[in-house]
Amino acid sequence: MKNKISIISILLSTIIIISFPVLSISKNNINYIFNDQEYKISLEDFSQISLTPGENENMLNFCWYDKNSDGDSQIKIWEKDGDIKIYKGSKNKLENGFVTNKVTVRDLKENTTYYYSYNSNGIWSEPIEYRTKNFKNFNFVFMGDPQIGASSKKMNSYKDGIKKDSFNWNKVIKKSLENNKDISFIVCGGDETNTVVNKNNIEKININNWEYAGFLAPNYLRYIPMANAIGNHDKDNENFYNHFNMPNSTHFGKTKAGGDYYFTYGNTLFLFLNTNNLNMNDHKEFIKSTIKKNQDIKWKIAVFHHDIYGGGIHSNDKDVKKLRHKLPNILEKNDIDLVLCGHDHIYSRTYSLKNNKKIKDFSIKKSTNSNENLEVIKNSKGITYITGSSSTGSKFYKHTDKTKRYIKLKYDKEESTYTMINVSENNLIITTYKVDDNEIIDNKIIIEK
Ligand SMILES: [Fe+2]
Known about the structure:
By secondary structure, the protein is an alpha+beta fold. The chain folds into two domains: 108 residues, Immunoglobulin-like (Sandwich); 311 residues, Purple Acid Phosphatase, chain A, domain 2 (4-Layer Sandwich). Helix content is 22%, strand content 30%. The protein is built from seven helices and 26 strands. An eight-stranded mixed sheet has the order 12-11-10-24-25-26-21-20, covered by helices on one side. The chain has a seven-stranded mixed sheet with strand order 13-14-15-16-22-17-23, with helices on one face. Strands 3, 4, 7, 8 and 9 form a five-stranded antiparallel sheet that branches. A hairpin with a 6-residue loop joins strand 20 and strand 21. The longest helix is centred in the middle third of the chain and has 22 residues. The protein starts with a helix and ends with a strand. Bound molecules: fe (ii) ion (FE2). Fe (ii) ion binds next to loops. The site of fe (ii) ion has 6 residues, from loops.
């Protein structure tokens, strides 16, 4: 019986390998992807694949549009000289004539080079290289409001604005990767695109499709996964849900774009809240039940769009006030270590906060090998909130001169920034850079636990 099973399994693997021969790995293609100096963009290219972190570090989620509704949604993945594994996913036919494909790949090992290929319009893509990183000590980069299309008002045409924002989006990703080649993934604080879509307005749907083409245009996104929060510009947009394959997607905090979702990576739990939905019981239940399922986790990072402790004009908005009234208590009770937000398009960072009050439990040291200040927050009972600037510079608001009592630093120059975060067993090390010259704009923050 055992022999019979092995013969059948050998036959089946042979059939799979014969049906899906190893694609010749075009070195040129891979080089092109890694060294694209020129930035080419086609706003009509709607079928670009997006990668999102999977449920844990061994998994990776894929999502892409295509015109072909036949057959399964599939990803082939293999190590150099290794067997091809094929993962099937789900296909969803959309009213705009496209289908959206979502596939999850499993069993990925750390520090390993893979190649993947996906099927679009019945054709397998050229193999694309994907390298997993260290799972224990890892880096991710946080970016606020790319809002592709927001600069269109100042341009000759809507398309020109999208192209400009997409160019700057490519630039911030490129800069962050040049700064640190070991980024495991990007975290984006919401407002990925600008147009607020109304289902009955075809013109707006078309514009938003171009914006998504612009958002997904950077080639880096073919091998760097990205986890996106749902911004106020995204909340009612099915395009958001149809362009990203969010892990552990829940019905909590749901809008048309999706609900609260989470993933773990090494020792860290990432909780993405859809704060457009003001049902606090939903968010509370989501956080509580997720933490219960992930008891052995060291770090807990919450990501949501509305900067409840931000430094810009949105702090007095009705929804932000409501969130500020209820959410901090839920986050504190669940021992969240760090919160990342967007919405105000200027970088700010709070003191460690608890019960709406600042805790001054930090010490500032001079770094031994450079001029930078290290701000160490040790075993804090409070939470640090960081708001990202506009990572593309597509839109800035009028400044408010008054700095709120909870803000430790506000960087309100009209400059794009990105924030690099290193996660290890005992520290979160947070460094924020100006995109143009990589100047560090805040103390290097070390949250120690
Ligand atoms: Fe925004």
